[in-house]
Amino acid sequence: MRARLHLGCTPWLTPIGRRADELAAQAVFAEALGFESFWLPENHFSGEGAIPEPLMLLAAVAAATRSIRLGTTSYLLPLKHPVAAAEQVAVLDQLSGGRVILGVGRGVAPGMFDAFNVKRSAKRELFAECLETMQRAWRGESLAKDEDVQLWPRPVQLPHPPVWVAAFGPKALAQAGRLGLPYLASPMESLTTLETNYARHREACAAAGRAEPDAVPIMRTVFVAEDDDTLVRARRILDEQLVAFRAQGALAGRAPPASVDDWAIVGRPAEVADIVDDYRARLGMTHLIATRLRVAGIAREDFERSLGLLAEGMTANLT
């Protein structure tokens, strides 16, 4: 029997994080539709798109919701003090009653590392050291040499919340495999690249003597509609978005998707359900995290309707 499908989403209104009530209202809306997780990335110095403190924003979401899980897609460990980071994650897990999923990453922007006075060449070592210290802290091990200094409070989820690794490239995939942690791919990877990367991740787990993780999370831009005009407009927007990413160098080092269908899930409800089934068959997907269309052109009500149709259409796929 295949694993249960877990449905999550990211916020769809921008800019994110200006007001707690606006952000929380989106999570409340998603929770009412049946979405099981709500996700934020971490990014810095990107103007109105900056999300420098995802845990703080998710604390606001925790106060307004009851069951939806609170996820980070890329909590950047090389920028953190490990004990402070472990404390902050534990506090959010306590505030939310044990609803945190911690997606961790390394970061790529040279200017960000310069601003934080972190050597970019050391990011993988810093990542591994930070995560190892955080896990020791969550387990209750002493954090001082000469006396018993333990983290408090501990997370609700013991020994700690689920940790996923946002990875791009063979070295990052190998590191995720050595740790035996689920791999969380960029939503811009083509389906063919995802197949290759998940195979590499499985191989790295096996080489390290690690069991394959139970979670296979996939982030994808998803848009569902019942009329052709809206779908044509969404596909045009996604084509324009891909061109813009190429012009900005956002796809450097990656095989560019051949078409919209190679990196996004767009269609009528029945079509989307079939595509999701294909992802599950080809990748073993257990978690689908639906991301928003990241450029103007789709009205809020259309996207919220899309979320509703996605939730309705996935009901049959939840077992």
What would your notes on this structure say?
The protein has 319 residues and is of the alpha/beta class. The chain has one domain (6-317): Luciferase-like domain (TIM Barrel), CATH 3.20.20.30. Helix content is 44%, strand content 14%. The protein contains ten helices and nine strands. It has helices spanning 20-33, 54-64, 82-95, 110-115, 123-139, 170-179, 191-207, 228-248, 269-283, 300-314; strands at residues 6-9, 37-40, 69-76, 100-105, 163-166, 183-184, 217-224, 264-267, 287-291. The chain has a nine-stranded parallel β-sheet with strand order 6-5-4-3-2-1-9-7-8, with helices on both faces. Helix 1 (20-33) crosses helix 2 and helix 9 (269-283) crosses helix 10 (300-314). The longest helix is centred in the C-terminal third of the chain and has 21 residues, at 228-248. The protein is globular, with a radius of gyration of 19 Å.
